[in-house]
Design goal:
alpha+beta; about 35% helix; about 25% strand; 4-stranded antiparallel β-sheet; single chain; two-stranded antiparallel ribbon
Length: about 160
C-alpha cells in the first residue's frame, strides 16, 4: 500500500501541488562537556550531526490525501515543517505548484503560507477548549485578513 488515497481518478494526471525532491534536514548535535574538551585540545573532533530527514522524494496532487505515519522521533514533524515553510531543508527542494518555496516572494509566498499548514495530532495542543468551534474556525482567516464583509455571515457559511 502506497499510503496515498486518490479522491478521483484524474488526480494521478493533475499537476503536483507539493513536490519534494531529495529533501534532507540535518541538525548539529549539542556537544557534551567531554566533546568540547577534546575538540578544544585536538581541534579534530567534528561536530556531531543528526540526520532528522534524509533524501525524501514525494509528490502530492490535487485530490490526494497523504498521511505520514512513523515512530516518535523519525522525522514526521520535521518533514511537515519543511513542507509548510517553517524550516528550510539542509538539502533538496520543496516545490509549491512547481516553484521552489525559497524563491517565492510577496503574494505568492503569502499564498503558500496560508494554503500549506500543519495539522497537529494532539487536539488539546492545537484547539483551545475554552473557545467555541465558531471562534476556532474563524480565528485564522480573521487574523490573516481574509474575511470580507460580515464575520458572523462568514462563520455561518463555513459551519
Amino acid at each position: 500500500m502506497s499510503g496515498v488515497a486518490l479522491a478521483e481518478p484524474v488526480a494521478a494526471l493533475a499537476a503536483p501541488i507539493i513536490e519534494l525532491r531529495g529533501v534532507s534536514k540535518r541538525f548539529q548535535k549539542a556537544p557534551d562537556i567531554t566533546t568540547r574538551l577534546v575538540r578544544r585540545m585536538t581541534n579534530r573532533q567534528p561536530v556531531p550531526v543528526v540526520r532528522a530527514v534524509d533524501g525524501v522524494d514525494l509528490v502530492v496532487r490535487r485530490g490526494e490525501v497523504l498521511g505520514l505515519v512513523g515512530e516518535s522521533g523519525c522525522g514526521k514533524s520535521t518533514l511537515g515543517r519543511m513542507v509548510a515553510g517553517i524550516l528550510e531543508p539542509s538539502a533538496g527542494q520543496v516545490l509549491y505548484h512547481g516553484r521552489d518555496r525559497t524563491t517565492l516572494e510577496g503574494a505568492a509566498a503569502r499564498q503558500a503560507r496560508l494554503r500549506v499548514q500543519m495539522i497537529f495530532q494532539d487536539p488539546y495542543a492545537s484547539l483551545n477548549p475554552r473557545l467555541r468551534v465558531s471562534e476556532i474556525v474563524g480565528e485564522a482567516p480573521r487574523v490573516h485578513g481574509l474575511i470580507k464583509g460580515d464575520y458572523e455571515e462568514y462563520l455561518d457559511a463555513q459551519l
